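Q: How would the structure tokens look for this protein?
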Amino acid sequence: YLNPQSSPVQLPVCALQLVSSVLGLSQYKLANSMNPADLDQVREAIRLQGQRMGGHEQLLQSLMDQMSQLSSQISQLTGNQASAQSPPSEPEPSDPSVRATEEPNIPPPSKYSGNPDTCRSFCTQIRLIFDSQPRRFSCESAKIAYVASLLEGPPLSFFNSLMEQNSPLAQSASCLLAELKRIYDHPIRGQQAAMRLMRLRQGDRSIRQYVSEFRSLAAESAKPGTGTGAAPPGGTGFGRSHHLSCGAAHSTSYSSVPGWSFREA
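A: Here is the predicted structure in token form.
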């Protein structure tokens, strides 16, 4: 009667069927052994017992249906939880330029307070930062704010006056930097740099320091109208009829030039 592979919920149903068969057999035996007076009472008791067992069978069937629904709901919740825990895959950008490296993080220059010796270097560094970080400084307002954050003292007061007057100089970073150079840049340029170059002496400096200043002054004097070459400084043993261009200053070893004598530190 009982199948060993039956589920735990189906076993009580099979047991009820077995009990019903046993009761039917008992009723048949009692009908042959009992007197008719007691047989009606036994039959009524068996009928009531059968009704109770039928109610139990319906109850077990209802429990089986509820357990099946509960199992389906648990499976659905488990699947939803697993899908929610899996991290979403990031879509790769279709444009290769989006995957380009980030813009370089260049440290800002020191704040400028109006020193004429550092004005040009300050403006050059600002322009390099703007060129290397185009996304960060994509608008003029960002450039102006960055320049203003690096000003102090008289240059900052000058910028504040431009802002209060709604000057066009305060709306363009290139115009603002050009105006700062016009006001605060060192006045020694062109012919004056050439004059300093002619008076330049090595003195107690090393050859590296001497050549470095010579190259700087030579570059300053090489401007339209002043010629591209600079005469080497006097007192070096090099004839005044000989000239050394800026290109030669960068490509020639000074110690190998005939007539030039330098003292290494």
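The chain has nine helices and two strands.

Residues 36-85 form the longest helix (50 residues).

Upvote if useful.
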